[in-house]
């Protein structure tokens, strides 16, 4: 059966990929809403304006109401992808159904949080929470896709415990970097609405420097992890994903540096948001790649081999 061998039908994989793309895509389109100052194009929720769920001509805000309303409609697409993912996991990969349930629940929570964001006048705290929840959903969706074809045996590390701890620290710093990034965004010029620009009362240069220092710490930890992986002769999958993460990190850092010195042009800010999602996916790939799940038949042999002293370092 598929659940025992780690294989699932191709259409299941395709739906899980679509789910991940949707979770990333809604972050990018949400950023476009903010960057075009369309965040209050629909000033209420769940209706667009009192008495109408769709924009009306009397709003006289140009395309802004339609941009915001279009992003709301995309939430339904994301929800359908999450629902389809959960249904297929229950049928073909029941061991992973919890991931699908988490994505569906988080997507529903995003719809509610989006409404709260509108009702609070795009307060940067709720905007930040909106983005961070999306980052979490991207991470869960990525892990789900990466584990979709795993076997059903127990997962075991392919590197020493010290490198697993170092990778855990990397994840913590990555999360802190994303949080600081939302503080930078909440302090900068793109509030999401040109008429009511609510921002954090912080010095933009200071928070930008703190965000940059977190990135430097992240790169330092990643370089240390890479050195460790090569020193212990880690599997190619693990080292390859670490190098991929380094490439994504450098590209994202370069984009952030350029957008800062150019005064935060909208196109680069949007690209930076996409890069943040790709960074989350790359971190998830590295974390998953440091462990392997063997077939159940092989896993049953591990305790016996351990007793014979055949598994060095296990």
UniProtKB/TrEMBL annotation:
InterPro entries: COX15/CtaA_fam, COX15/CtaA_HemeA_synthase. The chain crosses the membrane at residues 12-33, 73-90, 97-121, 127-146, 158-184, 204-230, 242-262, 268-290. Its main location: membrane. Keywords: Cell membrane, Disulfide bond, Heme biosynthesis, Iron, Membrane, Metal-binding, Oxidoreductase, Transmembrane, Transmembrane helix. It is found in: Membrane. It is a multi-pass membrane protein. Pathway: Porphyrin-containing compound metabolism. This is Heme A synthase. It comes from Aquipuribacter nitratireducens.
